[in-house]
Every structure is written in structure tokens, then in C-alpha cells.
Amino acid sequence: MKLTGLITIIIKLITSVMFVHTCMLISCHEVNDTKLEKVLRLAGKNKTELEKALEHFKNDPQKLKAAEFLIVNMPGSFAQSEEIIDICAPFYYDYDSLAREYGYKMNHWCPKKFSQT
After folding, report:
1. Between vectors from CA 60 to CA 59 and to CA 62, what angle results, nearest 5°?
2. Where would you find the membrane-spanning parts of this chain (predicted)?
């Protein structure tokens, strides 16, 4: 009698663990929405340009895979625009002036320096 009760408890425990595990797997799975589709959806106005790039490489599987990799890993990346540089330049010049005044060596590892020309 005790052995049967213990087996029943073990079976219920295993069933519960399997159920929880299955629920976790299902909740982590992306349903009908790949990472590429998500990125394209988030791309906004740039979506058509990204789709053109994918279309351009559709006949070369290796280049298509590379383009998909780059596009999927694009969110969060950006390039500096001249407008942003113009907005931030006065701050950098002031920072540079203060650094020189107090002897702080900023960006000593960086070969490019700002110039006020």
C-alpha cells in the first residue's frame, strides 16, 4: 500500500514538472514572428530599404544570410549624423577647455582630436 502511494506521488510530481517545463518552452517560443520580421516591423520608414537589400541578395544564400544577420542585429545601433555632432560640439569644446585647464588627459588613447576650425 505505501509503495503504491509513493509511486502515485512520484508520477504526479514528474507530470507537474513536465507540465511546467512544457509551459516554459511554449512561452519562450516566438509564434509566427521571427526576429527578422520583428526588426522589419520596428524599422518604420527604413523597412522598404531593408527589404530591398534582402531582395537583392535572394539568389545568393550566403550573402542573404549575412544580410539577415546584420539586419537582425541592427536594433540599438546608430550612426552619428552631422546634426548631432553640431549640437554636441559646444559641449565637447567646453569639456576640452576644462580638461586642459585642470590637466585632465581625456581620450589620450584616441588619435583623433577635435579642432575648432
Report:
1. 150
2. 6-28
Summarised one tens digit per residue, pLDDT across range 103-115 is 877 655 555 555 5
Domain holding 59, by residue range, is 33-75
Helix 61-72 with 35-42: angle, nearest 10 deg: 60
Query: Helix, strand or coil for residue 43?
Result: coil
Contacts of 66 (CB under 8 A, 6+ apart): 57
Residue matched to cell numbers 541592427: 74
Any domain includes 93:
no
pTM score: 0.43
| Secondary structure (3-state) at 39 | helix
Nearest to 50 by CA among 29, 72, 19, 18: 72
- Asked if residue 5 belongs to a domain, the reply is yes
Contact by Cβ (8 Å): 26, 40? no
Provide the grid cell at 37.
520580421
Residue 34 grid coordinates: 521571427
